Amino acid sequence: MDIPPLAGKIAVLSLGALPLSFALNYVSLLSYPLGVVLMSSLILGLFSLAIYSLSRSDIYYDPLYAVFAVFAFTSVVDLLIALQEDGYMAGFMAFYTKEGEPYLRTAHGVFICYWDGIVHYLLYLAMTGAIRKRKSYRNLGLYWLGSFIMSILVFLPGNILGKYSSEIRPTFFLTVPFVLVPCWAGLRVFSQTQVPTCCTPNTVEEAQRKGLLRRPVDLALIIYLIFAAFFTLFRGLVVLDCPMDACFVYIYQYEPYLRDPVSYPKVQMLVNMFYVLPFYGLAIYALIFPGCSWLPDWALVFAGAIGQAQFSHMGASMHLRTPFTYRVPEDAWTSFFLCNLLYALGPHLLAFRCLWRPAFFLRPPPGPPANHEKQH
């Protein structure tokens, strides 16, 4: 996959969040929730106008340029929040976490801010750079889409249903465009033309004639997906309080974070159970039967989703913001880390395999036309 150069202009503009957030931290108006939401809306509006005036031709070419540019700015803000909450800096975003979104001060909130401030930020710079160079960013966009949607699917219900439901402030409604805009962006990314492959009809036909035993990489991925599916189902049953001794042993010895009343881990496991588990079954089918052209795209989406989810889950499970009784015990760190790392790595290997040799998933070439006798 050709990774485009990062957009320097967007990087410079987004880094303006540093002095701006430092100055806003000392504005007395922002000591009230309503003041925070009004000021946040004003800043995002002014930043959008600045992007439009400076990059009008790029926005006309692809409106997602403006979306990614604004999201890059918010990613820098999220990174500042995470660094401040972990004590690496001070005097920047304290007003926002206090009066705007206090649930960002949880361990889960801190780690989704880290992911957004690092991984999403780099993706935004790469995708805006691709638009400026008039190159395709479809694969990067699919990975970002899965990651962003997973973050929203877990974070919003976790805020509404968890112990922070009584602390929802007016800034919560700013998440509405952050839900609607990615849906529109996702449709545009999916509608983009796929990058043509160099697979000839003969290559496709030869790849699709091979049985599973002659494709050891695919066989290994199927074995992995079967184990991952059982692991997903098991953790979902744990969250649902299934009366099984194995569930109780697992939750108390390896992942007590699943009992945390903040609700994020519970929502995360249920999302995995109802969305990721069916995908694993479909992916196994696509690795056995040729011509499932949908798998490469959806493998990228789910790789982004599971990468974001596992990063947040693993980090929050061991973070000091998580109460001691819900943290992973020190003697279980190795087992917990290896299991969850493998769970995150597998979908990325599946996506890489689909991009590396896509011939097996392409639609089979049409057969030779039937010979008809000439009619006299």
TrEMBL record:
Q: Where in the cell is it found?
A: Endomembrane system
Query: What region holds the EXPERA domain?
Result: 61-186, 217-351
Instruction: Tell me the keywords, alphabetical order.
Output: Membrane, Repeat, Transmembrane, Transmembrane helix
Q: Which InterPro entries match?
A: EXPERA (IPR033118), TM6SF1-like (IPR047195), TM_Tm6sf1/2 (IPR059044)
- What PROSITE patterns does UniProt report for this protein, alphabetically? EXPERA
**Any one GO BP annotation for this protein:** regulation of lipid metabolic process
Q: How does it sit in the membrane?
A: Multi-pass membrane protein
Principal place where this protein is found?
Answer: membrane
Which parts of the chain span the membrane according to its record? 33-52, 64-83, 103-125, 137-156, 168-187, 219-240, 269-288, 300-320, 332-356
What are the annotated GO cellular component locations?
A: endoplasmic reticulum membrane; endoplasmic reticulum-Golgi intermediate compartment membrane
A Pfam family: TM_Tm6sf2
Annotated family:
Belongs to the TM6SF family.
Name of this chain's protein = EXPERA domain-containing protein
Q: Which organism is this protein's natural source? A: Muntiacus muntjak (Barking deer)
Lineage, top ranks: Eukaryota, Metazoa, Chordata, Craniata, Vertebrata
